[in-house]
Design brief:
7-stranded antiparallel sheet; 15 helices; 19 strands; EC 6.3.4.21 (chains A, B); 6-stranded parallel sheet; nicotinate phosphoribosyltransferase; Nicotinate_pribotase-like_C (chains A, B); TIM Barrel; glycosyltransferase (chains A, B); alpha/beta; homodimer; pyridine nucleotide biosynthesis (chains A, B); phosphoprotein (chains A, B)
Chain lengths: ~425, ~425
């Protein structure tokens, strides 16, 4: 049996359903929307991630005997509500941005149409997934552009919760990273995995040379040898002596990389290992990656900064009721009025407006009806779930690959300002349009 | 069947074992240590969390057919290593700080004694758990002291990965929070759960009054009503009118809380609801909690900042080989020499030295042998796992409660400087002592 995801939920989602069932309003047709009020400080764009993963988690959002027993024992909800939860499965529809799509402030990333109760109960899970995964993808995407085409590997599993690590590997790959250290991300999501050895391996042996020899024996000369356990020039010399001209790469995980990379390149070239690559892995983020652009580094391994969203570990998305039917069956747009948290009511139809050259000029959100046909742009919403059934194009390995392509395509539409690392305004403005 | 945790692992852990098996060194008795080189910027102390959770994950660290098949198909390791992995279970010993204990730079939080291969393969999982959970607990502990005895609830599930949310709720509870919104944390770890309703519930109804009435009907007058969906004074008036003098609390989730809390208190008192409490939940962290100390707020709900470690989402712990036997059976202390990452070799025996009044004066780490009996202090290491079997005192709900008590006890030993929120030095120095 697949593990239930139903208790990965805030208690208030269930007490709201309990009160609504008692009041007879739980079945009111409703529209919920997930969006971010702003991008993380100074970012020019965000990258949507988590959608495909979320759709699979929603399919497992069922209250089994064990979940119901916990709720009963803790008197979380009434018996009537327990009965309703026992029969729960999501039967509504979900529309939204494709995974990998770029987003801006107030982009309506996910729109859930269902009864109030069916939609509200998914709030916590939807936000957990979108907030974490999009935080990682948004940070990772900046690192990828900063690397100017050199490959990046995600190696941050140890710097985030053990299951978040899998999500982070997936999100970074969608954002353009080439591989991950995380094996579960390889199994579950088809992300290419990589990695050879840590300092502990070198120290297991009586000498660095013995360690290198053991590694080359097992993994071949094309492996990556970690050369900074003791002394880098000595490590490089030993690595080349042991592995020969076929040595795949050396890895540097400490020191002043700006100067070290160049000196190691010279040393490798001097030893005849002109094809041996240099990979660096020491507390990198988008800024240090950019700073290394002028060095002969060949690839990057990124840990903490990517799995923690490089300073913004949650994307700041919220999930709001934007419309519902009243007792009379008429739709009512609803909006919260509290000062800094006002929301825009009504069903949205977002379009990325493009100029004649195909460059994005605005994120235009048509409210209440779709954009007129004359508008030059790309409609951003697609159907993700119909009557409770997810479109398989978004699921599994296939969904991940599609998302990775989507991110690459969406980035090509962005104006050059989007790729500045310095803090600033979103690359295009978000505009509301009434049709 | 319990889900295997064995692929929540960096690929290089397995390739190192592969090379070590081939070289015949994988069985060398070894000592690994988990520690943080520093506390997150400016913190005065950290709180160890995740230990009990980790011990349960280690018990599930087994390579089943599905895991082995993935490794085989992807040629991660040789057939000999696959055979070794198939038989893997951790049979070594783990010593460490009790969960909930306070820690400082270089505190040897976890010591793993086993063969090289048995110990190295746990690196990623150990660090994922300790880094995330300790990050949350360390931040949460500061919020608890800033709240000056007023209760806090953890409500950040939506701001971190869906499984990290459960770990965060557990870690915050260990650090002194009183409850969580997260139902799975209630089920799995026995953390008290709480929550009543969100803005969406109010907007589901045709009026705020109808919503409040529905909530009181279902949850009783002692419930907490969210009063800031439209207009706070109007919301408070409606809440009191609907629920009467028994109204449990009102919740404020927006606005300038510094002034709002006082005006809502006056309004409640003026309406005769002197026993109705005020809870606030708007983007709080340790600093805003401290700033609200002078207001008549009764309790706090904290989201993003606690589940993301309030600016330090990973505690920065590392896991290093510190000693191993050589081919001759002699123990060798090993240490990495790279510039900013030097480690102290050898088996550690940490003691919190106390002055005559029982106040901590140093984190003294005896290297190579235990502290002399004359030392006034508290030995910090306890046995967590013996020959592969975890001490049940650290597991499940019982382990969580013990950790929560441990944190409270450990904090009472700290000098007053430890509770300053401003950035500064660790509350006590870490000192190495040779016996």
């Amino acid at each position: 049996m697949t593990e239930s995801t139903a208790l990965l939920t805030d208690r208030y989602e269930l007490t709201m359903i309990d009160a609504a069932i008692r009041a007879g309003t739980h079945d009111r047709p409703s529209v919920f929307e997930a969006f971010g009020r702003s991008l993380p400080a100074g970012r020019r764009y965000g990258v949507v991630a988590g959608t495909g993963r979320l759709l699979e988690l929603i399919a497992d959002f069922r209250f089994g005997d064990a979940e119901l027993e916990f709720l009963r024992q803790n008197r979380v909800v009434s018996d009537a509500t327990l009965d309703w939860l026992a029969g729960y499965r999501f039967t509504g529809s979900i529309t939204g941005y494709r995974e990998g799509e770029v987003y801006f402030p107030n982009s309506p990333i996910l729109v859930v149409e269902s009864s109030f109760a069916e939609g509200v109960v998914l709030e916590t899970l939807i936000l957990s997934v979108l907030n974490y995964d999009s935080s990682v993808a948004s940070a990772a995407s900046r690192m990828v552009t900063a690397a100017l085409g050199r490959p990046l590997a995600e190696m941050g599993s140890r710097r985030t919760g053990e299951h978040s690590a899998v999500a982070a590997a997936r999100a970074a790959y969608i954002a353009g990273f080439g591989a991950t250290s995380n094996l579960e991300a390889g199994r579950t999501w088809g992300v290419p995995t990589m990695g050879t050895a840590a300092h502990a391996f070198t120290m297991l042996f009586d000498s660095e040379e013995e360690a290198f020899r053991a590694q080359v024996d097992a993994l071949g000369a094309s492996t990556t040898l970690l050369v900074d356990t003791y002394d880098v020039p000595h490590g490089v010399e030993t690595a080349v002596r042991v592995a020969g001209p076929e040595l795949g790469a050396v890895r540097l995980d400490s020191g002043d990389l700006l100067t070290l990379v160049s000196s190691v390149r010279r040393q490798l070239d001097g030893l005849g290992n002109t094809a041996t690559k240099i990979t660096v892995t020491n507390d990198l983020d988008e800024y240090t990656i950019a700073a290394l652009a002028a060095t002969p580094v060949d690839s990057f391994g990124v840990g903490t900064s990517v799995v923690t969203g490089s300073g913004s570990p949650a994307a700041g998305m919220v999930y709001k009721l934007v419309a519902r039917q009243g007792a009379d069956g008429d739709w009512v747009s609803v909006a919260k009025k509290s000062p800094e948290k006002a929301t825009h009511g009504g069903r949205k139809h977002p379009v990325r407006l493009l100029d004649a050259s195909g460059t994005a000029v605005s994120e235009t959100i048509y409210v209440g009806a779709a954009a007129p046909a004359v508008v030059r742009g790309r409609a951003l919403h697609t159907t993700l779930v119909t009557d409770g059934v997810a479109d398989p194009a978004h699921l599994g390995h296939r969904g991940v690959e599609a998302a990775r392509e989507r991110r690459a395509t969406a980035l090509r539409e962005l104006p050059p300002e989007a790729f500045r690392l310095a803090a600033g305004e979103p690359a295009v403005p978000t505009v509301y349009a009434e049709v």
